[in-house]
Design a protein that fits this description.
Blueprint lengths: L10 E16 L4 E17 L3 E5 L6 H8 L7 E6 L2 E2 L5 H4 L6 E4 L13 H11 L5 H14 L16 H13 L5 E5 L7 H18 L2 E6 L2 H7 L2 E6 L2 E7 H6 L4 H9 L49 E4 L2 E3 L10 E2 L11
Parallel strand pairs: 3-8, 3-9, 6-7, 7-8
Antiparallel strand pairs: 1-2, 1-4, 4-5, 9-10, 10-12, 11-12, 11-13
Helix pairs in contact: 3-4, 3-5, 5-6
Length: about 350
């Protein structure tokens, strides 16, 4: 799934058919009783200077996708390509040169900083990786990075506990920028911050993107933030991407029942609300569901027998708008699986 106007040369990250299952073990002998399908056939692309928002409730697999891209986990199937280079089977040694090009900003800014190191020392680690070793050169670059994220150069000798949450997140951003990355994965970077501080950090990320040409994978619960920052949005549910579209298209014409549920649950201001999608009392835990067909089926009010079709196909309902659902697709677009696009053209 990608914008038809985007050339392959501009693609920073390409993910195709990504899958990661975790075994569920039971009993004395710890036999495998099932699998948690954390990531199940996930595909997307991110172009240079663009932001893809990855949205969904807790436990849907968003952070697992990030860990797979960073090669902190190895996928069971699928392909990950960075700037056209297939890195799916890269060893830790092979990944080492690419670490500086793919960075992450964590949800908890305090937990991601060493409390025994000054912020100058924390950021300087990245500078040494970038080949900046001289003390005077490091200090000059540190001052530039701190100024870039809105902090004074005088703060470089202070420790993380001396800063507020928003300031610590700025420090995390500066540390990520220290190695001059091309792609930054933002894993819920503002969810732990006050609403007023969230706006400052989001505007900072947007300004840095314009200034440095960065690409972001932005993981968030907050649809208001996603609508403001992201150029495209992928909606995840139980390991699947159920809808993928340009931001304006998705907000104006949501086509999957789960996407509609998310949008209706999100107030004009504030955080995303999860209560409307609580499971029914007789529904088994999500990790034990070995369902065929639509993963949203047990909670869907418009489910039909054909929704149990094991082939979870995508439909294209508009330009660069794909949905994994029958709803509103038969008269809006065409199906994009192998049943409608045979190689013989029939």
């Amino acid at each position: 799934m990608s914008n038809s106007n985007t050339t392959q040369e501009n693609i920073i990250l390409s993910v195709e058919g990504l899958r990661k299952y975790f075994p569920i073990r039971r009993g004395f002998f710890q036999r495998i009783a099932g699998h948690v399908k954390a990531v199940n056939d996930v595909s997307f692309q991110i172009a240079k200077g663009q932001t893809l928002g990855l949205v969904g409730e807790s436990g849907c697999g968003k952070t697992t996708v990030a860990r797979l891209i960073l090669k902190l986990l190895n996928p069971d199937a699928g392909r990950i390509a960075f700037k056209g280079q297939d890195i799916t089977d890269f060893s830790e040694r092979e990944m080492a040169p690419l670490r500086r090009k793919i960075q992450i900003i964590f949800q908890d800014p305090y937990g991601s900083l060493n409390p025994r190191m000054t912020i100058g020392q924390s950021i300087a680690e990245g500078l040494r990786v970038s080949g900046i070793h001289g003390n005077s050169e490091q200090k000059e670059r540190l001052e530039d990075l701190l100024q870039m994220v809105g902090l004074s150069a005088a703060t470089m000798d202070r420790y993380p506990h001396e800063f507020s949450g928003g300031q610590r997140q700025r420090i995390g951003i500066a540390r990520a920028l220290s190695v001059e990355p091309a792609l930054i994965i933002c894993d819920e970077p503002v969810s732990a911050l006050d609403v007023s501080i969230q706006a400052q950090i989001i505007n900072l990320l947007k300004d840095l993107q314009d200034q440095l040409g960065l690409s972001y994978l932005f993981i968030s619960h907050d649809l208001n933030v996603v609508g403001y920052l992201c150029s495209e949005v992928a909606v995840m549910y139980k390991g699947h991407i159920v809808e993928y579209a340009a931001t304006d298209e998705l907000f104006d014409h949501p086509s999957h029942p789960y996407t509609n549920l998310l949008l209706s649950a999100a107030p004009d201001s504030g955080m995303y609300v999860e209560q409307p999608v609580m499971p029914a009392e007789d529904e088994p835990p999500a990790e034990l569901i070995q369902s065929s067909g639509c993963s949203f089926g047990p909670k869907c009010s418009i489910k039909e027998p054909r929704c149990d079709d094991d082939r979870q196909v995508f439909y294209q309902v508009a330009e660069n708008h794909y949905v994994r659902c029958w709803k509103n697709t038969e008269d809006r677009g065409r199906m994009t699986d192998d049943r409608s696009q045979r190689s013989d053209g029939r």
